[in-house]
Structure formats: C-alpha cells, structure tokens
Amino acid sequence: MEIRRRTTECVDVYEDLAPPSAGQVPGTMSLVRDHYDNNVGALLGTFHAYRKPDGTLGASGMWDPIFLLVNGIPHVDP
Predict the structure, then answer these.
(1) CB neighbours of 77 closer than 8 A, spacing ≥ 6?
(2) Element (H, E) at 54
(3) In whole angstroms, what is the distance from residue 25 CA to residue 6 CA?
(4) What is the pLDDT along the chain (78 residues), one digit of tens a residue?
(5) Is the distance from CB of 60 to CB of 71 less than 8 angstroms?
(6) Number of Cα atoms under 13 Å in the Cβ half of residue 27
(7) Does residue 51 contact residue 29 with C-beta atoms inside 8 Å?
(8) Using CA atoms, how far apart are residues 62 and 53, in angstroms rounded to an integer?
(9) C-beta neighbour count of 24 within 10 angstroms
C-alpha cells in the first residue's frame, strides 16, 4: 500500500472504549490514527479501527479510512 510506504509518522489521535452500539466485545477500544508524510508536510490519511482486548482488530479486521489524500485530492468518508 502506497500510504504505508510514504508514511513517515503515525499519530494516535483518539482512543476510547467502543460504544455499545458498535456491537464489539466488552473492553474493545475505538482507535483513530493519522498517517503523515513529513517530507512534504502532508496528512496522507486518517483511519479508524476497533482493537479487541486480545489485541486483534474487530469489525472488518482492518483499519478503515475516514480521510485519504489521493493524488493531492482529499477524499472523505461521510
């Protein structure tokens, strides 16, 4: 994935217990992480995931994009 190759810094911007409405196992954390390319000063993407108490990712099992910068054009998941 190109974002991983271009990322020079990851910043965890949010971490809290997942809401009951998310349908995750008790103790699951809701996480949001930003990926930056500090060489050009750009936010490449913002991603969300659920981390279960055993350390694995819940829901889709992957980091889901909230924001992506693609060829200089920002894309947002409403």
Answers:
(1) 64, 65, 66, 67
(2) none
(3) 33
(4) 678 888 899 999 999 999 999 999 999 999 999 999 999 889 999 999 999 999 999 988 999 999 998 888 999 977
(5) no
(6) 5
(7) yes
(8) 16
(9) 19
Please report where in the chains the tokens 């990712």 appear, as a residue: 57
Q: Tell me what percent of the chain is helix, strand and coil, each rounded to the nearest 5.
A: 10, 50, 40
User: For residues 67 and 30, is the Cβ–Cβ distance under 8 A?
Assistant: no
Q: Using a CB cutoff of 8 Å and minimum separation of 24, what contacts does 37-43 make?
A: 37/6, 37/7, 37/8, 38/8, 38/9, 39/8, 42/69, 43/67, 43/69
What's the Cα-to-Cα distance from 12 to each of 38, 46, 59, 71, rounded to whole Å? 16, 10, 19, 24
Between the alpha carbon of residue 51 and those of residues 5, 43, 63, the distances in Å are: 23, 23, 10
Written as six digits, the tokens of 49 are 């995931």
